[in-house]
Amino acid sequence: MPIISYFFGIRIRIRFEDHNPPHFHAEYQGAAASFTMDGEVLAENKKAIPGKQKALIKAWALIHQDELDDIWQMCQESGEVFKIEGLS
User: Fold this and answer.
1) Comparing C-alpha atoms, which of 84, 45, 43, 31 is closest to residue 62?
2) Phi/psi of residue 10, nearest 5 degrees
3) Residue 25 CA, distance from chain mean position
4) 71 CA to centre of own chain
5) How far apart are CA 23 and CA 42, in angstroms?
6) What would you report as the CA-atom Rg of the chain, rounded to the nearest whole angstrom?
7) pLDDT tens digits for 50-88?
8) Can you tell me the distance from the alpha carbon of 77 to that of 21, in angstroms, rounded to the nearest whole number?
9) 4-25: per-residue pLDDT in tens?
10) How many other CB atoms are found less than 10 A from the CB of residue 60?
11) SS3 call for 13
């Protein structure tokens, strides 16, 4: 599962040929969750990502929603991805 962005210790990944709905995965200090392309939480592991980091992920997703949609489509069709700039 390639890393498509990294910022403030948060890794953003996307899986090739993943199930619908379109989503991405975020990891932070051993916590993990999946998010919709507009940054809403779909599912979390037992160790939840802290609220501050969830807010950063949501802000990042809203800024890059079109790019996330493009990557999702590319992943499903060809297995290709590109990097998205993180927050600074």
Assistant:
1) 84
2) -100, 125
3) 4
4) 11
5) 8
6) 12
7) 999 999 999 999 999 999 999 999 988 888 899 999 998
8) 15
9) 999 999 999 998 878 889 999 9
10) 24
11) strand
d(CA 33, CA 24): 9
Cis peptide before 21 (omega within 30 of 0): yes
The structure tokens 């200090």 sit at: 29
The token pair that represents 32 in the structure block: 């993990």
d(CA 80, CA 17): 11
28 three-class SS: strand
Q: How far apart are CA 27 and CA 78, in angstroms?
A: 25
SS3 at position 14 = coil
Residue type, 53: Q
The full set of domain ranges for the chain reads 3-77
